[in-house]
């Protein structure tokens, strides 16, 4: 690999040959591709989809993806040469490139932003600025006037091929080195270049085995025992090895050997004895590349037999796939959708294709993967953000190599290099967590997966107990197929749901902090029967805010227009938007009073109070604060599944697809905040959350109960939840959306204008809205308006909402007009520093 920025290729000979150029996708938010010249000797190496090294600008070196190869030189600039090729074969497939282009076009972002989101960090390149002597500079002959510090640098470079900036700082003992580097560059004594290194490295383990002749030649092993008899520690190593690798039964076992650490872990054997045997030639040590996913080599088929109605659903799905590409499996909670998915995956594997199984949350993968490993073994790959960079890169490489045919993943799995996709399963398709908010691309994994399946002629199965209104509308209009499963698996029945009026309980003084008497009594009864409880509170932290009892002072975030949430565990106030935090004050900074009170409650407070109210119960919390570590999800779920935890308190994480057979009670602590949210999807989301979390109860033979605490039990949404009336919800919502022009009848685009100055943000939004109205029409543009949270990270916000009719509207043209309007705004001197964020299909 060439490291020099100013690498000059020798002049081409006079013989006629083809000059090729490559259009590359740089990992930067650039509006177009850049063209580079391919050196003749790389003509056969540069392929569409490989990574190449290029110089961008004066000093920057980047890795990028080749998007196209042609013979057309760029008309408006001289193409630089590609410096090096990183891959022997493409790491990005042709179907992927088509999908990335669609994502960039549909979600109004750049291909560079898509590539940045798509590639695991380990497949990107790291660079560090270095200096080396200028190729034309000879310190022995060229007479340059150098400062003492410059002489030090030159002397060091005569003895080292290159130095990093950090090494130069050490050399000059902390003195400012930038001016000396700049001076040496101007004197053409040194040049700056980038040291490029590929981050991905396969996992390697050290293994040992007996040297071959001890196993192959008769009597050698017995002779070895006699030789080692005076050395008991070394003899113990040999005996331990033969116990773990019984070569006397099968000499071929010796070839695989054993991990070196397996002999020393949990044993009295010393590493020095092993090393001595290696030096003597008794054992040989070797490195072996292993998977970071130690799945079973052979699938262990579960004796899974589908019930009659599950078989019926599966046959209906396969029948609909003959005429439709997309089918919705509408199955109530606990109906056994996962078993149907597994059977369909088996069916797809028989055809030799690849399968993507999408889940909305990392928490779900822990349970699902355990089940799938037992069925699909090492054909299964897992992909989510809690994995390390190298683990994600290994899944990427494993799909390219054909090692993983089935992949379970969260939303980022749609970027993986599938090239022979036959089936996509999108479980809990209604979930808003499939939507990426920041940074760009602000894609929806559900819609992206549908397009990916379309581009590869694959079938898509969406599954949900509470489908999104848009999805169900597509089924009702016969665009997609629909299969229903309205019966729970086995003997399980839907839980009984009871509403508790908090106002009445407060008047009767039967509330225990935030727990009604009915809920607390129900929990005590379940715990006495050794059954488990799930409590849902849709807010993390200890309290949403604190307030002074004397003057009503409330601490606010310094960067955002929100109050700070109180987290008792760290005794700090924290902003959930920008991360700003400060210590909990002892007294009020406004009036000096010490009567500071927490207002409202979050999951941390629920956990804290339960430990006082139910002292014999093991309580655990699952929210963003307790699941930051890599394996924390798995540990919390395993503890609950194994009965170590009696009560699980959580945010939306506990509502999604988890399957615990011993849960007989679910409590929803504060239902009103979810219903009364200012959003056209508020009632749909509330219904989905209540039904989904209710579905965690009574999933086996035990009867389940749900207690919903509310101050307004007359809300119509509760009747629909109690009677599991999804159709009633759908009919009401679809009528409302038709009347007020909301999806699925229009496409929505939200434009957010951001600026550090409030007046500038407002003025920019007014100019932008007027231009959009002139281009798209008054009916299509709403706003600008100040959002509910009007300042985030020291930026003032203004929002414009655009509604584009699905009928008689050229979407591509409309998006082009929007992009042009934003471009024109940025050209205005007053608004150059304004940020404009476009979100297509905001969740």
From TrEMBL:
<dbReference type="GO" id="GO:0003677">
    <property type="term" value="F:DNA binding"/>
</dbReference>
<dbReference type="Pfam" id="PF17764">
    <property type="entry name" value="PriA_3primeBD"/>
</dbReference>
<feature type="binding site">
    <location>
        <position position="588"/>
    </location>
    <ligand>
        <name>Zn(2+) 1</name>
    </ligand>
</feature>
<dbReference type="GO" id="GO:0008270">
    <property type="term" value="F:zinc ion binding"/>
</dbReference>
<dbReference type="GO" id="GO:0043138">
    <property type="term" value="F:3'-5' DNA helicase activity"/>
</dbReference>
<dbReference type="Pfam" id="PF00270">
    <property type="entry name" value="DEAD"/>
</dbReference>
<feature type="binding site">
    <location>
        <position position="560"/>
    </location>
    <ligand>
        <name>Zn(2+) 2</name>
    </ligand>
</feature>
<feature type="domain" description="Helicase ATP-binding">
    <location>
        <begin position="318"/>
        <end position="485"/>
    </location>
</feature>
<dbReference type="Pfam" id="PF18074">
    <property type="entry name" value="PriA_C"/>
</dbReference>
<dbReference type="InterPro" id="IPR005259">
    <property type="entry name" value="PriA"/>
</dbReference>
<feature type="binding site">
    <location>
        <position position="548"/>
    </location>
    <ligand>
        <name>Zn(2+) 1</name>
    </ligand>
</feature>
<feature type="binding site">
    <location>
        <position position="591"/>
    </location>
    <ligand>
        <name>Zn(2+) 1</name>
    </ligand>
</feature>
<keyword id="KW-0479">Metal-binding</keyword>
<keyword id="KW-0067">ATP-binding</keyword>
<dbReference type="Pfam" id="PF18319">
    <property type="entry name" value="Zn_ribbon_PriA"/>
</dbReference>
<keyword id="KW-0235">DNA replication</keyword>
<dbReference type="GO" id="GO:1990077">
    <property type="term" value="C:primosome complex"/>
</dbReference>
<dbReference type="InterPro" id="IPR041222">
    <property type="entry name" value="PriA_3primeBD"/>
</dbReference>
<dbReference type="InterPro" id="IPR042115">
    <property type="entry name" value="PriA_3primeBD_sf"/>
</dbReference>
<keyword id="KW-0547">Nucleotide-binding</keyword>
<dbReference type="InterPro" id="IPR041236">
    <property type="entry name" value="PriA_C"/>
</dbReference>
<keyword id="KW-0413">Isomerase</keyword>
<keyword id="KW-0238">DNA-binding</keyword>
<dbReference type="InterPro" id="IPR014001">
    <property type="entry name" value="Helicase_ATP-bd"/>
</dbReference>
<feature type="binding site">
    <location>
        <position position="557"/>
    </location>
    <ligand>
        <name>Zn(2+) 2</name>
    </ligand>
</feature>
<protein>
    <recommendedName>
        <fullName>Replication restart protein PriA</fullName>
        <ecNumber>5.6.2.4</ecNumber>
    </recommendedName>
</protein>
<dbReference type="GO" id="GO:0006270">
    <property type="term" value="P:DNA replication initiation"/>
</dbReference>
<comment type="subunit">
    <text>Component of the replication restart primosome.</text>
</comment>
<dbReference type="InterPro" id="IPR001650">
    <property type="entry name" value="Helicase_C-like"/>
</dbReference>
<dbReference type="InterPro" id="IPR011545">
    <property type="entry name" value="DEAD/DEAH_box_helicase_dom"/>
</dbReference>
<keyword id="KW-0347">Helicase</keyword>
<feature type="domain" description="Helicase C-terminal">
    <location>
        <begin position="583"/>
        <end position="742"/>
    </location>
</feature>
<feature type="binding site">
    <location>
        <position position="578"/>
    </location>
    <ligand>
        <name>Zn(2+) 2</name>
    </ligand>
</feature>
<keyword id="KW-0639">Primosome</keyword>
<dbReference type="Pfam" id="PF00271">
    <property type="entry name" value="Helicase_C"/>
</dbReference>
<feature type="binding site">
    <location>
        <position position="575"/>
    </location>
    <ligand>
        <name>Zn(2+) 2</name>
    </ligand>
</feature>
<dbReference type="InterPro" id="IPR027417">
    <property type="entry name" value="P-loop_NTPase"/>
</dbReference>
<dbReference type="InterPro" id="IPR040498">
    <property type="entry name" value="PriA_CRR"/>
</dbReference>
<dbReference type="GO" id="GO:0016887">
    <property type="term" value="F:ATP hydrolysis activity"/>
</dbReference>
<dbReference type="GO" id="GO:0006302">
    <property type="term" value="P:double-strand break repair"/>
</dbReference>
<keyword id="KW-0378">Hydrolase</keyword>
<dbReference type="GO" id="GO:0006310">
    <property type="term" value="P:DNA recombination"/>
</dbReference>
């Amino acid at each position: 690999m060439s490291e020099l920025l100013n690498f000059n290729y020798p002049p081409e000979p006079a013989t006629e040959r083809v000059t090729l150029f490559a259009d590359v996708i740089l990992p930067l938010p650039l509006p177009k591709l850049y063209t580079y010249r391919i050196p003749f000797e790389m003509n056969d190496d540069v392929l569409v989809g490989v990574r190449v090294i290029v110089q961008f600008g004066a000093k920057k070196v980047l890795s990028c993806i080749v998007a196209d190869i042609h013979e057309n030189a760029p008309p408006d600039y001289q193409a630089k040469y590609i410096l090096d090729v990183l891959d022997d074969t493409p790491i990005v497939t042709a179907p992927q490139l088509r999908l990335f282009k669609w994502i960039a076009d549909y979600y109004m972002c750049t291909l560079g932003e898509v590539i940045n989101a798509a590639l695991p960090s380990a497949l990107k390149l790291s660079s560090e600025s270095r200096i080396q002597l200028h190729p034309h500079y000879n310190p022995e002959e060229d007479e340059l006037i150098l400062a003492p510090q410059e002489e030090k640098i030159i002397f060091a470079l005569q003895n080292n091929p290159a130095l990093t900036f950090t090494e130069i700082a050490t050399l000059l003992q902390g003195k400012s080195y930038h001016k000396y580097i700049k001076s040496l560059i101007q004197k053409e004594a040194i040049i700056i270049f980038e040291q490029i290194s590929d981050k991905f490295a396969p996992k390697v383990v050290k293994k040992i085995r007996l040297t071959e002749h001890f196993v192959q030649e008769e009597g050698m092993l017995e002779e070895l025992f006699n030789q080692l008899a005076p050395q008991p520690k070394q003899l113990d190593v040999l005996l331990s090895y033969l116990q773990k690798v019984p070569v006397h039964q099968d000499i071929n076992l010796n070839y695989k050997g054993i991990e070196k650490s397996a002999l020393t872990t949990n044993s009295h054997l010393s590493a020095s004895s092993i090393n001595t045997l290696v030096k003597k030639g008794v054992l040989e040590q070797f490195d072996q590349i292993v998977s970071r996913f130690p799945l079973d080599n052979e699938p262990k088929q579960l004796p899974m037999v589908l019930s009659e109605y599950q078989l019926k659903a599966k046959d209906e799905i396969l029948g609909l796939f003959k005429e439709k590409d997309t089918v919705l499996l509408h199955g109530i909670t606990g109906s056994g959708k996962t078993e149907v998915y597994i059977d369909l995956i088996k069916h797809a594997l028989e055809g030799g294709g690849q399968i993507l199984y999408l889940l909305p949350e990392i928490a779900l993968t822990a349970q699902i993967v355990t089940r799938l490993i037992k069925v699909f073994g090492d054909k299964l790959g897992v992909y989510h953000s809690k994995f390390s960079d190298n683990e994600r890169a290994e899944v990427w490489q494993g799909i390219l190599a054909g090692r993983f045919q089935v992949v379970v993943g969260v939303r980022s799995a749609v970027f993986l290099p599938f090239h022979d996709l036959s089936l996509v399963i999108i479980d809990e398709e209604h979930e808003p967590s499939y939507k990426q908010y920041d940074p760009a691309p602000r894609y929806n994994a559900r819609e992206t997966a549908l397009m990916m399946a379309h581009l590869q002629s694959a079938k898509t199965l969406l599954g949900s107990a509470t489908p999104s209104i848009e999805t169900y509308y597509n089924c009702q209009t016969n665009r997609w197929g629909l299969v229903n499963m309205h019966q729970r698996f086995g003997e399980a029945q839907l839980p009984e749901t009871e509403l508790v009026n908090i106002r009445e309980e407060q008047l009767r003084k039967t509330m225990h902090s935030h727990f009604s008497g009915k809920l607390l009594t129900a929990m005590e009864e379940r715990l006495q029967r050794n059954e488990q409880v799930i409590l849902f509170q849709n807010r993390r932290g200890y309290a949403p805010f604190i307030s002074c009892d004397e003057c009503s002072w409330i601490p606010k975030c310094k960067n955002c227009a929100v109050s700070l949430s109180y987290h008792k565990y760290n005794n700090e106030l924290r902003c959930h938007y920008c991360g700003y935090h400060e210590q909990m004050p002892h007294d009020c900074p406004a009036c000096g009073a010490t009567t500071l009170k927490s207002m409202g409650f979050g999951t941390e407070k629920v956990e804290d109070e339960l430990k006082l109210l139910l002292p014999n119960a093991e309580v655990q919390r699952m929210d963003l604060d307790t699941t930051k570590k890599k394996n924390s999800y798995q540990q919390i779920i395993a503890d609950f599944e194994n009965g170590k935890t009696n009560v699980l308190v959580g945010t939306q994480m506990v509502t999604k697809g988890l399957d615990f057979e011993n849960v007989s009670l679910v409590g929803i602590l504060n239902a009103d905040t979810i219903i009364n949210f200012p959003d056209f999807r508020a009632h749909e989301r509330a219904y989905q959350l209540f039904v989904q979390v209710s579905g965690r109860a009574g999933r086996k033979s035990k009867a389940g109960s749900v207690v919903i605490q509310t101050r307004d039990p007359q809300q119509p949404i509760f009747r629909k939840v109690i009677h599991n009336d999804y159709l009633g919800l759908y009919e009401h919502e679809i009528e409302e959306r038709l009347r007020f022009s909301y999806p699925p009848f229009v496409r929505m685009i939200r434009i957010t204008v951001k600026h550090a100055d409030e007046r500038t943000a407002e003025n920019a939004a007014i100019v932008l809205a007027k231009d959009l109205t002139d281009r798209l029409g008054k009916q299509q543009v709403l706003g600008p308006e100040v959002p509910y949270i009007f300042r985030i990270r020291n930026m003032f916000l203004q929002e414009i909402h655009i509604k584009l009719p699905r009928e008689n509207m050229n979407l591509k043209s409309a998006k082009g007009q929007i992009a042009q309007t934003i471009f024109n705004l940025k050209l205005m001197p007053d608004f150059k520093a304004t940020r404009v964020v476009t979100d297509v299909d905001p969740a």
